[in-house]
Amino acid sequence: EPLRLANRGLRHGAVRLMARVHFHEALEEMELQLLTLGELAGAAVGRSVEAVVQHDDAIADEVIAGDDEIDRLYVDVDQGMISLLALQAPVAADLRLVSVIMHSALHLERIGDQAVNIAKVYQITRDLPRNATIVQQIGEMGDTRRLMRRRAGIGQLAAQVLRPGERLAAQQLVRAPRQFGDSRPEFGNQP
Fold first, then answer.
1. What is the pTM of this model?
2. Which of 32, 86, 181, 187 has its CA 20 to 30 A from that of 64?
3. What is the DSSP letter of 187?
């Protein structure tokens, strides 16, 4: 009977859960890793476009080699989130944030993979005649990517919106498309 009381009635002993303070610290660490993942994926896309436009084999090789770091960081974020889910069973805003981080990490990893695909297609086609129009359009896509990186602050605002009491961040997020010249009337004008 004393064993039963010492283990609070648990069959195999005590269960150890991390304190909520540690949970929020771990969640913030995962957010930082997600931002790093986004930076790496964005840089990979930029470098792969640069490889095509400049016809540079070394840059293409660098993009391909750099994908391992993106993959590693994605696995770290994903495993960290699964661990937090298992140990803490988050609810409400915390659960939404965990979901957003996991979903975003998956897509950022895929963006890194697409950068590798661009670099590999360049390598396969580098000896073929170049089409100046296509190369120009690819360069313009790279310029668009740079604009999107400037908009990256929107992603940080979106993460804040998921936290309780972040009404100001939500209002800034709604205004963000107009600040960046987004003329789509349906974006940012939702009730």
1. 0.67
2. 32
3. S
How far apart are the two ends of the chain, measured CA to CA in Å? 60
Structure-token match 């963000």, residue found = 176
The predicted-structure confidence for 94-143, as pLDDT tens digits, reads as follows 788 888 888 889 989 999 999 999 999 999 988 988 888 888 888 887 77
Of the CA atoms within 13 Å of residue 170, those in its CB half-sphere come to 9
Token look-up 């005590």 returns: 14
Q: Answer with the residue of higher pLDDT: 18 or 92.
A: 92
pLDDT at 31: 86
Encoded tokens for 173: 């997020």
184: buried, middle or exposed (CB in 10 Å: 19+, 13-18, 0-12)?
Answer: exposed
Is residue 41 within 8 Å of 70, Cβ to Cβ?
A: yes
